[in-house]
Structure formats: C-alpha cells, structure tokens
Queue: 2 jobs
Job 1
Amino acid sequence: MSNPRPAAILGAAAITIAMAGLVALIAMWDLATNLGGMTGPQIGTDAYYLVVAALLIPASMALLSGRAWPRAVLATAHLLLVLSMLALSGFLGWLAAIPAGLSVTALALLATPAARAFVAANRRPGFLFDDEADS
C-alpha cells in the first residue's frame, strides 16, 4: 500500500463490515430457529442476505488493504440500502433511519477528498477491476 489509510476509508469499511455482519447473524439465526416453518421466499430472503454479506465483508477488507475497486461496490450497496430503507420507512417507522443514517455516513466518508485520493493513489493500471488513470 503506497499511502497511509485515511480515517474515512477505515470508517466506511467498519460501518459496512458491522452492518453486513449483523445482517448475516440475523439471517443465520432466522434460518436456524425457523427453518421448518419457513416458506420458499422467506428462505430465499435469508439466503440473499447471506450472499450480500459474503460479498460486502471481503470487499470492505479489500478496500482496507488498498484496492480501488471496492469503493464502488460499497457505495452502490449503501446507496441501495438508503433507497430500500426509504421505501420501507412506512413499515419500519423510525427504525429505518438507523441503517439509512449509517449508510449515508458511509457514503459521505467514501466521498471525502481523502478517500478519493487514497483510491486514486492505489489504482493498479491493468488490474481487472481497477481502471486506468484518466487522461
């Protein structure tokens, strides 16, 4: 890693790991305690949450290690979470504000100049997921 990791990168990755880990634990608990009485869509929803967590945690770790590509993955996931929490706010009420607020915080951290400079400095031209520097 060529540059020291800024606090914004650490914060965004920590928020993502914590949220994905919590969702994975809830999905595993739901499957373990209710599997016999669950319908196909309920099992599919829990499986979806486990797959998302399985993608976001390694992406966060890759961002911490200095890779550039996970920034886009994390930003997309948090943007989708904010939109889904807005859609569910009528059902969840004020509880939807907790994950939405954490995601907005992660998006703000990923958009800071320090985070953008860190990602730009750690791009690897020719690597599959890292774009070449803009001309």
Job 2
Amino acid sequence: MENYYKLIILTLLCCFTFSCEENEETLFPASLKVVNGIPDAPGVHVNYFGRDIDYSNNSILTLGSSTRLTLLSNVANDLVVVPSSDTLSTIYQEVVNFQAGDVYTLFLTGQSENVEGLLLRDEPLVTADSVIGVRFINLSPDSGEVRFELTGVEQEFETLSYREISSFESVMATSANVFYSVQVKDIGGNSLAGGFLFAPMFKSLTLALVGFRDNNGINSLSVRQINSY
C-alpha cells in the first residue's frame, strides 16, 4: 500500500512539472521595440492589446522615438498603428508571433499614405571591455545613399540606401559613458544631418536617419538614437 501511495505522488509531481513547463513556454514573454520613422506622421499610437482602447491614455510616438512592448510568446499578437491626429484611421497593422525570449524591433517606415514595417530580430553584440555595439539605419525616403561617421572613430561604416540597416559594429569606448559626435553624409561627401551618440559601455544601440532631405525646400533630416537596452 505504501508503494501504491508513492506511485500516485510521483505521478502527480510529473504531471505538475509537465504542466509548468508547458505554461512557461506560453507565458515567458518576448520583447518588441517599435520605432516611428514615418516623416509625415509625426505622432502615432501603437495598440497591441488586441481590443479597442482609449488612446487618450496611450503614449504618442513622435518621429524618431520608440517604445518597448512586452508581448506574450507563442501566440498571435495584433499590432495596430494609428495617427494621433485621427485615431479612427489605421495606417499600419501586423500580426506577430514570437518565441519565448525573442527580442525584435519594428521600424515604421514610408509615408502616412503607404506605411511599411521593417521587422528585424535583434542580435546585439556581446561586447567586451571598452567596446559598445552600434548599428545604423536609413529611414529617410528621399536621402539617397548615406554613410554615418563618428567623430574620432577611424573605421568606415557601410553605405546605406533607404530602409537598409547595418549589422551591429564594435566601436571602441574610452570611458564609462561614451559620447561621440555623429555626421551623416551623402555619397558626394555632403553633410546631411548631425547628432550625438551617448551610451554606457558594454551596451548596444541604433542610430537612425529620419525625415526628408527636401521637405518643400527644407532639409528636415535628423539623427536619432534608439537604445537596445
């Protein structure tokens, strides 16, 4: 009889362990960072709740800004993007299904009449001492091919056309907090935009070119930093 009870307890423990493992796969979250790179939609809302929401309580993503979302894994998550000026209009929608622990970035690109998503799985560098990881993306529809330059950094980074993104590059850091001046130039060497990079050592980030090169005769290009941490 004693062995009978032991067998029952062992069976229950096995069932409980299997149930926990199954739930852990579903409940362990994935991470998605959404970046607003739409130059003529300076403010958007992101709805990832799978239902109608009150957008007055939802933060606005301005041009070049980002937000990190925590999503359930192994289930379909419906993403809806609406302009802050007209929350009844959907300008982008996508269903995503990530594995547990996945880290992705969704870059919203194009123009308000034709918004496109660029969904990328993030694989930041495992950085060593005195190194940060930096990647670059061109989100400007009319910039042409561009190249990013970091003041004081001799290495050359690849030329990027619209919607092209580099891999994470190792950049040497000489202090606990890294500060660089950034220049974006066209293939003729003309400066299009400038900015700054600031990141703690051992971290990874993305520098994005956003805006229009010619917005009714005005250059509205700017460089935005998007942290991966």
